[in-house]
Amino acid sequence: MNNDAILNRLKSQFSLDKAYAKVLVVGLGKTGMSVAYYFRQLGIKFAVVDSRDKPALNDELLEKMPDVPVFTGGFDEQLFELASHIVVSPGLSMQEPVIQQALARGVIALSDIDLLACSVNKPIVAITGSNGKSTVTTLLGEMAKADSVKVATGGNLGTPALDLISDEIELYILELSSFQLERTTQLNAAVGTVLNISEDHLDRYSSMDDYITQKRNIFTGDGVMVINADDTEVMKMQEASREVITFGLDHSADYHIKQTENGPFLAFKEKKILAVNELAILGRHNQANALAALALAKVVKISEKAMCDALKHYKGLRHRMQFVADINGVRWVNDSKATNIGACIAALQSFEGKKIILIAGGDAKGANMSELLPSIIEKVQTILVIGKDADLIKQAVNDLVPVVEVGTLKKAVKKAKKIADVGDIVLLSPACASIDQFENYKERGQCFASEVKALM
Question: What is the average pLDDT score of the chain?
Fold first, then answer.
């Protein structure tokens, strides 16, 4: 799509007229920088504001666009008063007082996802959920590549959405967080899915209902809805006027696990697609992820052969149920990406027996840790708790399983080595965010892997 067509869409849908608009980009992280490049390419004038004294990408912006006004060190109300449109990065809450005041004055809020939707005329697949969205996004991308489709994947995962735009791309696959969806109104994806719902980001939202409402925004428009039949909250999102495809481990879903005399198969209705034992990713939660990817792939007309080829070869993401080492008969598994309760439960349920030494803790983001208890009682022999909300886990467990407060991940690895026996699994699956002690979950996972390898 050429620039004139994009500008016409922006004017039509958002009253964003290149000649008159006063656009304020709020936040200079990866998303904010991608928005800056986008507006620069279209010739739309804008300014940037960030509450930090020196955002990480400040120097890049000044070097690439020295004429762009940049305001740091706080949110000046006068800037927001002058704006006709604001683009707020997902890391910032829309409840910031200056943002709420701007919206009350009639300032139009945009998201980078809205801007992408106005700028491409190729199908968009939109994927969200409390857990599994990165796996499904990446897996679907691999399916598309196996079918020789020119595909771009990104959004919340990897490349910012606006940096994906290219005339060569035939399919866009976006992982979207609730933070992105809460400010997105124009998506209208060809197919979208909410993989599951569990407690997350309750430090940002007033209630679970508020969180669920933001997730539901992925179904804005009239595209196909892919629905998790095993999740009651997701099932409530169905719309009678829309095409709906269901997936789930139960045989009642369109895409399901079919039990046969030759073992379980991924199946569509009565048709077998691939034996579960041929999947390269392990665990029942990944069987559900595979079913979701199959449903999405069917809508965008990826061949079944390409789907199966990808399923046989895709080994999953780093820091998500990643095998690190087997040391003297003890397996060490890095699931640092389990930043909420649902992800930790899925990890625990992937293992048989009660052989797990669980390392958990960090920033609980307001979640109720007692939801972990049934899986902990069933699967865990000892918990080593770390981070600022370690006490929340200890209180929830209430001595039903031994809990040891170790404080740091390094100390947790050393303690696990002392207490683990042959056949045990040491699982880092924190059920919490990492920001109390680490830059992100990747740094936490890398720290874990380094400490484990130091034991060898």
Answer: 94
**175-205 pLDDT, tens digit each:** 999 999 998 998 999 999 999 998 666 677 7
Kindly tell me the sign of the dihedral angle through the C-alpha atoms of 176, 178, 183, 184: positive
Task: Given the residues 85, 131, 156, 289, select the one marked as catalytic.
Answer: 156
From 30, 85, 131, 133, active-site residue: 133
Q: Looking at the predicted structure, is the pLDDT value of residue 78 above 70?
A: yes
- For residues 103 and 159, state if they share a domain: no
C-beta separation of 237 from 281 below 8 A: no
Answer with the one of 267, 284, 313 that is the final residue of a domain: 313
Specify whether the CB–CB gap between 359 and 386 falls below 8 A: yes
This prediction has a pTM of: 0.82
Helices and strands: H and E segment counts in the chain? 17, 20
Tokens read off for 363? 């920033």
Residue 201 designated active-site: yes
Q: What is the distance, to the nearest Å, from the Cα of residue 42 to the centroid of all Cα atoms in its chain?
A: 29
- Asked whether 326 and 143 are in contact (CB, 8 A), the reply is no
**Least trusted range by pLDDT, from 8-12, 61-65, 212-216, 322-326:** 322-326
pLDDT in tens, 320-379: 888 888 999 999 999 999 999 988 998 998 888 889 999 999 999 888 999 999 999 999
Distance CA 122, CA 186 (A): 15
Shared domain for 329 and 309, answered yes or no, is no
* Pair 81, 130 in one domain: no
**Which of the following is catalytic: 30, 85, 201, 337?**
201
Mean of the pLDDT values across residues 6-24?
A: 95
DSSP string for 260-271: ETTEEEEEETTE
Q: What is the count of structural domains for the chain?
A: 3
